[in-house]
Amino acid sequence: MSSLTLSKGSNLSLTKADPGLTRAMVGLGWDPRTTAGEMFDLDASALLVSARGRVRSNDDFIFYNQLESKDGSVVHQGDNRTGEGEGDDEQILIDLTKIAPEIEKVVIVVSIDQAEARHQNFGMVRGAFCRVVNDSTAQEVVRYDLTEDAASETCMIFAEIYRHGNEWKFRAVGQGYASGLHGVATDYGIVLD
After folding, report:
1. How far, in Å, are 23, 54, 65, 110, 122 from residue 96 at the CA level?
2. Which alpha helices (DSSP H) does the chain contain, by range?
3. CB 112 within 8 A of CB 120
4. Strand intervals (E) in 103-154
5. Along the 193 residues of the chain, how does pLDDT read in single tens digits?
6. Helix, strand, coil % (nearest 5) of the chain?
7. Alpha carbon distance 4, 11 (integer Å)
8. How far apart are CA 142 and CA 3, in angstroms?
9. In this protein, which residues make up the domain named TerD (predicted)?
């Protein structure tokens, strides 16, 4: 089985592409351009979203300070603060069999830490990608390479994994947010201090 590469806005049935997929490893990668010396720290996070288009509570926001959902369906593998090296910079494990029935989709987000203070944005990021790997077989199922210019945006929804009938599907989103992670989180119902 060979992996498929999607373009922005397209989707793929994960269930049809890999019928044995139950544990999906979502790998996210990027390479920051050379900066004026400021550290460049991108962070991956996931939002568990119901049919209302919102989270049920702040417990549905999985990120570097809350690494696991209460039901164990989504587990963040930890913060990579530099983005150096090849391959995935951060990974999120999603056990599709454990996701509560009322959850319609898992939204995968990448944000730039302290973007405003450091004057950084996604226009300074290259080689960004999101991929889904079958955690049991280590086979890559689908990949989305972000190519859009997002010069003013400090946060981006990379992809969604969502229910469609009895299937799980992957959508390549590539939607930028100039309001950062705060804007994305509040749009989905997270209550921030």
Report:
1. 6, 19, 22, 21, 30
2. 14-17, 115-118, 180-187
3. yes
4. 103-112, 125-134, 139-145
5. 567 888 899 999 999 999 999 999 999 988 877 666 677 788 999 999 999 999 999 999 999 999 999 999 999 998 776 656 668 989 999 999 999 999 999 999 999 888 888 888 888 888 889 999 999 999 999 999 987 666 788 999 999 999 999 999 999 999 988 888 889 999 999 987 7
6. 10, 45, 45
7. 10
8. 5
9. 4-188
Q: How far apart are CA 17 and CA 21, in angstroms?
A: 9
Sequence-separated (6 or more) residues with CB below 8 Å from residue 131? 3, 26, 27, 88, 140, 141, 142, 143, 144
Give the position of tokens 């979203």: 49
Q: What are phi and psi of 22, to 5 degrees?
A: -125, -35
The residues, any chain, with a CB within 8 Å of residue 65's CB and separated by 6 or more, are none
Q: Which of 130, 133, 132 is nearest to 110 (CA)?
A: 130
- Single-letter amino acid, residue 176: G
Task: Name the residue type at position 95.
Answer: D
